[in-house]
Every structure is written in C-alpha cells, then in structure tokens.
Amino acid sequence: MKEKFMTKIRKFAKECMGKVPAHGYDHAFRVGIMARNIARKESLKKLYLYEIAGLLHDIGLDFPDRSKHGEIGAKKAYSFLRQETDLSITELSEITYAISYHNRKLSAPKHSLILDVLADADTLDLLGAIGIWRGIQSRADANLPSPRQVAAAMNRFEEYNKSRKDKRENNTHSIAEQINFQIQSAKIITTSTGKKMAEPLLATMRHFRYMIVEELTQSK
Ligand SMILES: [Fe+2]
Ligand SMILES: [Fe+2]
User: Fold this and answer.
1) Does residue 114 lie in a domain region?
2) Looking at the structure, do residues 83 and 146 belong to the same domain, yes or no?
3) CA of 81 relative to ligand 2 center, distance in Å
C-alpha cells in the first residue's frame, strides 16, 4: 500500500473520531498499529489491510445508535476507500466485513482473520494502564464509589452479564462496573499473540481493581 494512501486514510480517521469519550483518534491509531503487529507476529500477509481496519473500525461512532456503529462505519469506510485508494474490491470487502462485525464478533456469519485480529487489537486497547485510563475517561463524571459499593460491584460483576449492557450503553454504570466489563471482554481474544499480549495488561487491571477496594476501605 502506497504511503500517500495511508496518509489519506489516517487523515480521514482523524476527521471522523473524537465524538465519543475515550474514542479519539489516538484509539484508532493504537488499534491500527496493534492490529498490524499482531498480524505480523501471526505471520499473516498484506499487513496494511489490518492497519487500515484498525484505523477505520470506529468511524461509525457518530451515529446515535451505538450498537450499529460497526455496520455504519463499514459503509462509510467502503465509500471512502473505494474513492480514495487503489484497494481491490476483494480487499475492500475483507476490511469492511471486519469493521462491520468488530462490535458483534460472535454474530459474524463467517470466519475472518482480519476480524479476529481487529477485535483482538480493539480489546487490547481496553486493557492495561491505557484501558484503565480509557475506562475512567468514559465515566469521567462519576465519583469514586463507596468501598461497599465497589466490593459489591466486584463480586456481582466478576461474571459480567448481558443484563448490564443496557446500563453500560446508557452510561449509568459505575467505574467499578466499567473496569469489570473491560476485564471480562478479554475472553473474546482469539489469536495466540493477542492472548500473550493480554496477560500483563490483565494483571495490571486486576491489581488496580484489588487496590481500589483496599484503598477505599482504608479511608472509610
Ligand atoms: Fe467499536
Ligand atoms: Fe474501538
């Protein structure tokens, strides 16, 4: 892929991102680089396809119904890439298929390596110190909960279940619930490279979760 096309794609991603907390261009950029690195370590070909999918995966987030941001983003990405790059039709459909299902991978009708790698990279950006930072950013208006509330949330949401999804989508959940959701999301990681990368990041998050209960308990 020629650099002039990559420059255009990065510029387009920059214009589209930043409408939702914790989803600025920096998220798109990191997911692009991470997807490319995972693909390289997994010995996959055409690394640019993975980077482009990462850069553009969240461009549909300006659509009010967040649950549709994958498919909306895929449509936007298709028309942009078709007009502005020399990607083949096959490459275009591979990238946009991954974008379309990145937020509902389990309902994807067919297997796709780009989807696996993209979902792994996107999930890894929810973990570790960056994941904690983004989690708090997404609930920047929330105060620290009481130690009892945190401890209860930790137990209750160790198995983060579907019934909490509404709460999360309405942004009425606590920071503790958000961190738990992020830890649970690592279950979806598929590639062995992604799994390896997730280990220290998950340890960081579990430590944070442990420490926040400890510190709040001490200060009560
Ligand atoms: Fe997304
Ligand atoms: Fe994302």
Assistant:
1) no
2) no
3) 19
The whole domain housing 61 covers 3-108
Distance 18 CA to ligand 1 centre (A): 12
- Whole-number Å distance between alpha carbons of 206 and 154: 10
**What distance in angstroms lies between residue 28's CA and the mean position of ligand 1's atoms?**
10
Rounded Cα distance, 220 and 216, in Å: 6
DSSP 67-107: GGHHHHHHHHHHHHHHHHS---HHHHHHHHHHHHHTTSGGG
pLDDT tens digits, residue range 83-95? 999 999 999 999 9
Whether 146 has a pLDDT exceeding 80, the answer reads no
**Cα(158) to centroid of ligand 1, in Å?**
23
Note whether 44 and 78 are within 8 A (CB). Answer: no
Ligand closest to CA 69: 1
3 CA distance to ligand 2 middle (Å): 23
Based on the fold, state whether residues 32 and 78 are members of the same structural domain: yes
Q: What is the dihedral of CA 108, 35, 185, 201, to 10 degrees?
A: 170
Please list the alpha-helical segments (H only) found in the chain.
3-16, 25-41, 47-56, 69-84, 89-101, 113-124, 128-138, 147-156, 165-169, 175-185, 192-218
3-state secondary structure of 160: coil
Ligand positioned closest to the Cα atom of 60: 1
Q: What is the pTM of this model?
A: 0.91
- 20 and 98 together in one domain: yes
